Amino acid sequence: MKIFSKGPFAAIFWGGLLAGVFDLAQALIGFSLIGSTPFRILQRIAGGIFGTHSRDMGWTSAAIGLVCHFTVAFGAAAVYYLVSRKLRLLVERPVLCGLIYGELVFLFMYFVVIPLSAIGYPQYNIATYITGPIGHPLLVGLPIALCVRRFSAERPM
Q1: Residue 43 — φ and ψ, nearest 5°?
Q2: CA gap 16, 141 in Å, rounded
Q3: Among 3, 43, 54, 113, which one is least packed by beta carbons within 10 Å?
Q4: Which ranges constitute the DSSP H helices of the chain?
Q5: Mean pLDDT across 5-11
């Protein structure tokens, strides 16, 4: 398929898709170790919009949580791509820059988005420490950076 070979759409699409899938997988694994079900984890994401009433919404809130999760992943990929157009270092050194960007995404989500949402302040447990500062750089930032480098129209040789 020629449409997915190069350019901003391919970089943002594949980077966001991989980051979203990897981040959701690590969240489901990490938080299931402390007793959460995937259904409740997705409802918790929707809780940022609907508050505590998201538990009463059933599968609707889980679907909204899934959409919100991938919206954030595609948004993170779009931001990385747009910044990489000005800062060529992001394309030239994708591993280091991707790891740093993944940590910045974690910090933004846990210290800006979650406290400003209806969820309230984040609750930290062992799963948060594994999926956050360790998982986001490896499973969010790195796939985005590598996809932007791979699908960028003007890759450095």
Answers
A1: -65, -35
A2: 10
A3: 3
A4: 8-32, 38-50, 59-86, 89-92, 94-108, 114-116, 126-131, 135-136, 142-151
A5: 82
Say if residues 42 and 65 touch (Cβ distance below 8 Å).
yes
Instruction: Name the nearest CA neighbour of 79 among 62, 59, 102, 47.
Output: 102
pLDDT digit string, tens, across residues 20-64:
899 888 878 877 777 777 777 777 777 666 666 666 777 777 788
- The predicted pLDDT at position 155 comes to 52
Cα separation, 21 vs 69, in Å, equals: 9
Contact present, 95 and 145 (Cβ < 8 Å): yes
* DSSP state at residue 113: I
Alpha-carbon gap, residue 109 to 14, rounded angstroms: 21
133 backbone dihedrals φ, ψ, rounded to 5°: -70, -20
Please report how many Cα atoms fall inside a 13 Å half-sphere around the Cα of residue 105, on the Cβ side: 34
Instruction: Please tell me the distance from the alpha carbon of residue 157 to that of residue 2, in angstroms, as a whole number.
Output: 21
- Determine the Cα–Cα distance for residues 114 and 153; give it in Å rounded to an integer: 35
Q: How many residues does the chain have?
A: 157
